[in-house]
Amino acid sequence: MEFWKKIFPTQLSDGNRSVDLIKRLLSENFRQYASRYALAFVFMALVAGMTSLSAWIMRDVVNEIFVDKDLSRTIMISLAVFAIFVIKGVATYGQNIVLGRIGNAIVARHQKLMYARILKQDATFFQKYISSDLITRISHNAQAARDVLTMLVTSIGRDLLSLIGLIIVMVVQDPIMSFIAFFIAPPAIYGVARLVKRTKKIAKAEYLSLTKIVLAMQETALGYRIIRTFGLQDIMRERMEEAVHGVEHKANKINSISARTSPLMETLGGVAFALVILYSGWQTIEAGKSPGEFISFLTALLLAYEPAKRISRLQVRLEAGLVGVGLMFEILDSPLSVTNSDNTKMLDLKEGEIILENVSFEYIKENPALNDLSLSIPGGKITALVGPSGSGKSTLLNLIQREYDPGQGRLLLDGQDIRQVGLEDLNSYISLVTQDTVLFTGSIKDNIAYGRHGASDDEIIQAAKDAYAHDFIEGLPDGYDTIVGENGASLSGGQKQRIAIARAIIKNAPIILLDEATSALDSESEAKIQKAFERLMEGKTTVIIAHRLATIQHAHSIAVIKDGTLIEQGSHEHLIEKSGFYAHLVQLQFGS
Ligand code: ADP
């Protein structure tokens, strides 16, 4: 219990009112599928009509067969009954097919919209929504949109129309009995309304538990080795069981609330039926009324019972679905924090010089990660960022990529403020190689080709050669077609890194951002990676977070960053001579 409370300290936001959510769902989806919905309504109207007709015809069934004993009419009626049921069957089929298709289109549309929105997001967004939350939202909540719309449409189209048709039959056959039967409506509505409120709260809690299951599973798949070596199985199992129980418990609660509408409706229904039978029995026996009307009325009442029950339960079911819809809209409406300015200019890059002018940035208020930092990064050369951990080096790379915009100051690329450049345009000039190599599920060839659309096989092989990866790739059973597994699970750390470098080489961007790996690699790998990096950096503006002395010494310029500010800049020799903070760092780290 304690563990999950820390991870999800707050409840989900209360979201919008149900009515607003429904309005929005309808306004965004109904028109788009209007013609198909119209077709579905035709089918549903047919179903409703046939249902009412089947009740209506019962009068003739009873009166013609049992009272008048007319054989030829009996044959006619039986044929008519057959026809009614066939039409109803076909219409139900049509309705299910059409609504099913619309529903699936709505799920697909919302999943695409959500993903498109998520792709536009930056670091702030991915910190707010952890991956398991996003996975659950995209897989479950788009379905909620379908469920809510389908529920609404079938309730209005089929159930309400059937109910109206059947009520007409009832009223025509016997107005007084109808009056008795309708007495049950007001108490039923009151009873159901009371159950609705609780559903909403429980549905939200159920969603949270679902996210927990995905999170626990994800971490287990990623960290299974750590789980095994540190014997964390019991802890993980407890976590998972708690989350699973959460979902089970909440689902049971929703189920029991939804089920509670049944005894309510059954009891009230029983009262109505008993009264109707009493009254009509008395009418037929004492007042000599023909039984046809009674049977027809009773059939209509019995048939009306199911749609009435479904409509009464509609709100409870809607509320549960609307929670998901609200969570989906939250993603679709999530603000984009680094947005393209309205009048973006195309970046005109020649030298590739990067200048930071008095840049300040804070992730958390009053806690600057960068503080009035000014730095000049010359074009086509290597600039190494050095400094204690937490000093702001990664933040600086993030800002160059416009993962965030600075609170104060500006960043210039060949004199152009990067805030005026479109994000896609900017990123097309930048290659990023991070410490934790990211490979995507697919073949090695695909992973290298992600560097540039439409790269030819020859170019891919050349990039792999330049990244000192060709030999090991050739040695794999499937060569370039080897599937790398989830995030390159089948490759060694050094191999993954070289593939990532090949990907950056093939992109051939004029600006290279590198976060050098801190983890120790075997010396052969290390040497190859070093060479691969050198190949990648040739003639490019490179900003590198350097951890190795070899890299630092090769750098044209070293920027020493401490507490978010630049404290020294110059060549290795120059800074050593100066005996300042850098010289101190080098001595600490490399013992020279
Ligand atoms: P470095 O790369 O030099 O180790 P960073 O740029 O990662 O340093 O971090 C600079 C400061 O900003 C640190 O104090 C760190 O705790 C903080 N920080 C980094 N990323 C975030 C984040 N996403 N949210 C809040 N604080 C952060």
Percentage of helical residues? Answer: 55-70%
Radius of gyration: 35 Å
Please, what is the CATH homologous superfamily of the largest domain?
A: ABC transporter type 1, transmembrane domain
On the 0 to 100 scale, the average pLDDT is 85
CATH class of the largest domain equals Mainly Alpha
CATH structural architecture of the largest domain: Up-down Bundle
Find the count of extended strands (DSSP E, 2+ residues): 10
Strand content: 5-15%
- Morphology: elongated
Content-based structural category: alpha/beta
- Provide the spatial order of strands within the biggest beta sheet: 6-7-8-3-9-10
Instruction: Please tell me the total number of domains.
Output: 2
Head-to-tail CA distance between termini:
51 Å
CATH fold topology of the largest domain: ABC transporter transmembrane region fold
The count of helical stretches stands at: 21
Ranges with pLDDT <50 over ≥5 residues?
9-13
Bound molecules: adenosine-5'-diphosphate
Major pleated sheet: 6 strands, mixed
